Amino acid sequence: MRRTWRWFGPEDRVTLADARQAGAEGIVTALHQLAPGLPWTADAVAERQAQIAEASGGALQWDVVESLPVSEGIKTKSPDWATQIDAYRRSMEVLAEAGIETICYNFMPVLDWTRTELRAPLPSGGTAMRFDLVDFAAFDIHILERPGAAESYPPDTAAAAGEVAARMNDSEKSALCEAVVSGLPGAAERWTLEDVRAAIGIYAPLSADVLRQTHVDFLSEVVPLAERLGLRLCCHPDDPPFSLLGLPRTMSTLEDYQAILGAVDSAAFGVTFCTGSLGARPDNDCVAMARALAPRIHFVHLRNVIREKGRAPCSFIESEHLDGDVDMVGVIEAVLDEEARRRAAGRPDAEIPMRPDHGHDILTDIGSGAQPGYPAVGRLKGMAELRGVIAALTRRAA
Ligand code: DNO
Residue 275 — pLDDT band, cuts 50, 70, 90? Predict the structure, then answer.
């Protein structure tokens, strides 16, 4: 596996030099300054590549784009759909010309990844990100005041959410809002409460089946181009992998992936296998999923979660990389087996890029102002642990 590291660009408090010291071999980034739907230019891509080469003395290069965001206009088939598709295709051409072959995106309506607390204290002294279903329901029912929200939760969850909302002061409410709608890095769009309400309204008539078809329509426009250009598109799972705010989510389970991979059966379209996203759902067996999806996995995010027992939707907390409900060793073994299979078949993409996803804020991360989930030391620790597993499994297989 190729060890990569997410970097949010020159604004990122965690530098490229840090990434190199942490053991990264390649960089995952995006032109975060550009709004979704705008075509990327060759100059802007070249500038970013030059920054990476320069800051690392040529040791690192831009391996994976995360994300080339799919605009809401594409996801809702808005009147300017064709223009938005053209912009996406133009960006793909620019990336191919620059030699960047792997492009990650997601197809979540309105919100990208969602948490209710960005820095939950851990007994050891660090902090982790959490998703608490009751807090989320409190946001949905009492802060966003989405019509019908109360009825969309089990009665005990809705009642508990009412108690939580009644206890919260204004600053706790705005921290919850910040965590849910605007605090996360890498999300394609920054939303206000008003934006969220309006966007949910647009999706109101859209069922999961319609969203799935819209996804296939998008892929039908971009995958043939990816094939011609030698690119690999890879869809990130829903995070968390269940419906939120009454919106459909269609990339949450093995069946979801199999349906879309079957509908668009091309090696140029595949999976960003994110163990932390998929693992937040009790009925997702990540090892079985990794094995079933292996031939189409183009990019891997490795992190872990400890989730509430029971069924989705459920609460979870981001745990240490090797210590959670996901059998991380089993997933890594599945990916290494796939790499061996590809090498034997002479596939040019035999080495699959992975990154240690998220990390706790520990040691000098605390108060460092790094992006939530993306501190230097917490991720370095994750990278080192994962690297140990990879080395041990590789030795054993030799
Ligand atoms: C969170 C990330 C996501 C991811 C996008 C991919 O840490 O994994 O924001 O980048 O969903 O499009």
Answer: very high
CA of 302 to the centre of ligand 1 (A): 12
The C-alpha angle with vertex 96 and arms to 95 and 102, in degrees rounded to 5, equals: 75
DSSP 95-133: HHHTT--EEEEE--SS-SS--SEEEEE-TTS-EEEEE-H
pTM, entire model: 0.97
Question: pLDDT by residue (tens digit) across 343-352?
Answer: 999 999 999 9
Q: What residue has token string 């209710």?
A: 116
Question: Given ligand 1 and candidates 110, 238, 239, which is best to mutate, with the most ligand atoms within 8 Å of its CB?
Answer: 239
Contact (CB, 8 A) for 20 and 60? yes
Ligand 1 contacts (CB < 6 A) are 66-67, 104-106, 112-113, 186-187, 236, 274, 301, 358, 373
d(CA 160, CA 155): 9
Cα 261 from Cα 253, distance rounded (Å)? 12
Which residues 6+ apart lie within 8 Å of 369 measured at CB?
A: 13
Least confident window among 30-34, 166-170, 181-185? 181-185
pLDDT band at 192 (very low <50, low <70, confident <90, very high): confident
Quickly list DSSP for 345-357.
HT-TT-SPEEEE-
- DSSP string for residues in 148-216: TTGGGS-HHHHHHHHHHHHH--HHHHHHHHIIIII--TT-S----HHHHHHHHHHHTT--HHHHHHHHH
CA angle, 317 then 322 then 328, to 5°: 100
From residue 220, give the alpha-carbon distance in Å to each of 119, 179, 215, 357.
Answer: 40, 35, 9, 30
116 neighbors 139 (Cβ within 8 angstroms): yes
Q: Across residues 377-388, what is the average pLDDT?
A: 98
Distance 96 CA to ligand 1 centre (A): 21
CATH of 2-131+206-397 given 3.20.20.70, 3.30.428.10, 3.40.50.720, 3.20.20.150? 3.20.20.150
**242 contacts: CB under 8 Å, gap ≥ 6:** 249, 252, 281, 312, 313
List the chain domain ranges.
2-131+206-397
Question: Annotated catalytic sites, by residue?
Answer: 236, 274, 301, 357-358, 374
